[in-house]
Amino acid sequence: MKRTLVFCLLLCFLLGACAKAPAPPAGTDPPAESGALTGDDLTVADGEGAYYVFVIPSGASDLREQASLMKGEGYAVSGRQLFIRTDGSADPEEKEILLGQTERPESKTVGEGLGVAEYRITVIGEKIVVAGGSNTAAAAGAAVLYKTYFENAAERIAVPRGLDLKGTCEMLSNEFHGGWNPSVYPAQNGIELLYQLWLPKNYDPQKSYGCLFFLHSAGVRCDDNSHIYTGEAKFLRNLEKSSYGEEVIVVAPCCPKTAQWVPVRSWKDVKYNFTDCEPTPYMAAAWELFETTLASFPVDRSRLYTYGMSMGAFGVYFTLCQHPGVFAGAALAAGAGDADHADRYDTPIWIFHGTADPTVPYASAEAMRDALKEKRPDLEVRFTAFEGAGHGIWGATADTEGLFDWLFSKRR
Q1: What is the extent of the structural domain holding 93?
Q2: pLDDT tens-place string over residues 204-223
């Protein structure tokens, strides 16, 4: 009897001990000591050292600024350096803070589906991830991470493992005035994109406006934002003087002399494939800028328009092909498009071309006109041929009677 009682007491003791201190599940951290990783958070820096590396896209100056602030706080707490590395410069490490659109799969996962003004801060495994629908949004998310967990930290910087914070931010500067505003847009791919933004001279943020995406030609590529002040920009001069100048916002990105809007090697082909290719880096940045403009101003999404000349007309064809369902109306001069995939085009379009164009063959304009009529017979396609004219038809196009009335009357 005594032996049985002793055995039962011993068994109860052992069972109680096991209930109080269960073995950690496979793959988890062992019980943490004071000041170390607790299982509920990730230690970025403490009195014993700094443990994380920042990874940012190349050229992302706003993100580098936020990373530098967090690095400084990490050094103040730990006396050790946190390192900032440009995406692609080093192999992935276990403990990284990913800021913006890096090539790490975690960045792509977290950033999927975010609008240009949206950011998300979360943890995947041992990585802290800040993603945004644009570089500006990602920088805003990085600023939130800094202010919430890094700024004025005392003895330890840590981020909760369960962190999953979403937010939105203001996009383009609210200091823009009526008229033309030269500026620079920091795109997610690292490009610092020059652009000009037109706001109606009597701009009222309580009103709703249309928006025009303006793409210039190869001949006026520049590095000083002067592309809207050339002879080919007569379209813009006419717009400024018309009543429509008070009804639309214009975003006019600037392509440098070393780049193009479209991924083509020659301007002389009759047909191009814009369906099975990626945008050039500057077109990707320009499209991100356009989306950011829509998120930043009171734009009526049913009144989106696009206009381009030569390389810019190629860019219009490319954009309409890659982004169907966006624009209400399009006009272009002396360009060529994807005739074999004309069924992808769903925007009313007005095509202008010189019959004696030595740079972009007149046959390419005819090919697009005929393909659109065949594959999209329901689509409104206008076609104006300037008999005997060469490539420089900018003035004749801009002065075409009824162009603005036709374009800006369209609704999506």
Answers
A1: 41-168
A2: 989 999 999 999 999 999 99
